[in-house]
From TrEMBL:
Keyword Zinc annotated: yes
Gene Ontology molecular function, alphabetical: protein-macromolecule adaptor activity; zinc ion binding
Domain of life (superkingdom): Eukaryota
A GO cellular-component term linked to this record: HOPS complex
Spans of repeat CHCR: 115-272
Protein name: RING-type domain-containing protein
Residue ranges of domain RING-type in the record: 353-428
Species whose genome carries this gene: Hemiselmis tepida
Amino acid sequence: VAAGGGDGAGGGYGHLLDEFKHFLQDNIGNLDKETTYQLIMNHGRMDVMLYYAELNSDYDRLISHHVQRREWTKALDVLAKTSDPELFYRHSPIMMQHAPLGTTNAWINASKANPTLLDPRKLIPALVRYDSSNNPPGHKANQAIRYLQHCIKNLGCTDSVVLKYLASLYAKQPDEQSLIGFLEEHGGSGGGALDLDYCMRLCTAEGKREARVRIFTLTGRCEQAVDAALELGDVELAKANADAAQDSEELRKRLWLKIAKHAIAEEGDVRQAIAFIEESDVVKIEDILPFFPDFTLIDDFKDSICKSLEDYHRHIEDLTRGMEEATKSSELIRRDMAELRGRFGFVRAGQRCGFCRGPAMATSLYLFPCNHTFHATCLFQWTTKHYLSEGDAQRAKQLHAQVEGGGGGGERQQLELDDIIAQECPVCGQPAIDLIAEPLPAYGGGEKDWDIQQGGMLGR
């Protein structure tokens, strides 16, 4: 069946063409593809070649044929039939360049049918060739942004390369709000996958000053955020970032002073600077007075000065009351100490040592305010062995040896020893509480260890 053959009598040409197509269909499994394609093309039968390619699901050949003839709609129709991702990656660059809306629709529809079919990262070369001027009339939306938004919002894509490329597309848009929203959603403190340092370079290169402020905020660089906001002239944004520095009152004060200085020096707005004092709880009138011009009417900030003086007056009164209370407390303490020096107690003749149970009066002893009595030697041995820290125990032993040796300064050494071993009663004071966590001695050391009368109350 040669190209250009007439219909002939009785439509013989059409009959032969149909018969040939049936032949191809019936013998498709037995024909060598390349040889068959070559024979068909040698006869110039393009329609038959397309039919044979359709029979073989040879979508690559079909798409290439339509692309060569700039038949974008037909190429997209064929692309919609395939489930081979490589065909999308191979043909999308040129199709995105010339038919962006249809190509984007094909990608989105393919991902709806199979969310894992296409890798957005591998389609970036096609997105790079996108030119919005090739959008059909009435379609102003950026198709590259549209597809990447679909991948992120509907497919859950978190690929850092995809996020970076979408950020670069947003940075080229005249309106910064989409970029700012994207930064807040994917670059926040929740561990977003977006590289904010890369975005900062983008915003600097594209002159997106408000977005730069937002990046400083997201990364916790409050001071840089305030500086950038003031450079932008957005005082409200600067104040919001100044208040974000809650961890450091000193930093908050420094940032608020920057804002006040900007209001006075750059805008000459004295009343606004005064208003900052009421908004901030860290800046006072005396902090911003150095920023005012030498010749400024006091009427502009008379109320603030009066309020500051009243605050100082209240603060001085509070300090005075605190000093009076401290004086009273010190007097009470001195009186208690004086009374303590003259305090005494009685030791009964039959009273015994709380440790060894021997007669308390047999040797030097310690009498606690709770009336528990201990031999000095018993208390020394018990505290150095069971209660004192290693350093205190070592010091107590040194003092005890010096006191027993009768060297000079014995009274001072005795007082220091008393302070170490007799701070509290071992029966009802802190030592007894601390011993609650101590394990009982293992059984087997002899019944004498468990003899209350023999070993005393705390003997071990």
